[in-house]
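for the writeup, i need someone to sanity check this before i put it in the appendix. the sequnce is what the collaborator sent (i think, or maybe the updated version? ugh). structure was predicted straight from it, no edits. if anything looks off just tell me and ill rerun, i have time this weekend
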Amino acid sequence: MDTNLRQRIRAGDHHAFGDLFDAYARSVYNHAFRLTGEWSTAEDVVSLTFLDAWRLRERLDEEGGSLRPWLLGIATNVTRNTRRTARRHAAAVARLPPGEDVRDFADDVAGRLDDAAQLAVVRTALVKLRRAEREVLALCVWSGLGYEAAAEALGVPVGTVRSRLSRARTKLAKHMEPPYSRGQMTGDRTTAVGPIREGNR
């Protein structure tokens, strides 16, 4: 099925691309959220990922398995660019003269989330990881990709994926306080970093 879908996408078949979106949009969204920790940013990443996928469709190999690694690889690059742009924007805003204080409603929204405390713990631990370690953790642990599929998504050797994942797990075990560390390290579902763990499609 995926081989046929690849060929149709390469040919510019809009219906095939719609099928691609229906099949993998949730996986891309969850992956983006796990990398950014922000719902709105994750939504932007989904849109940009599929725009890039359409733009890059002719580079897609005609033969192959699941298209999920290809899309998650694009999403990873989009996330990097989005965060880089956000940092530049924040720096520009910081240079502006101070204005009138406006109430920030973000805390009110976060307070209504059942997993707000857990989210804070997980995000604090994730900040201590290098970007490359966060990316491989998101792909292998939360998105459920195997080492080879994650390597394909990131464009790195399988050995690099293994070593980055090992370092990420070690750092998380060190920086996360119980009870959260046990659930994370065994790969249990954790709502704070992604409501759904996808299967291998």
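The chain has a mean pLDDT of 77. The first helix runs from residue 2 to 10.
thx in advance!!
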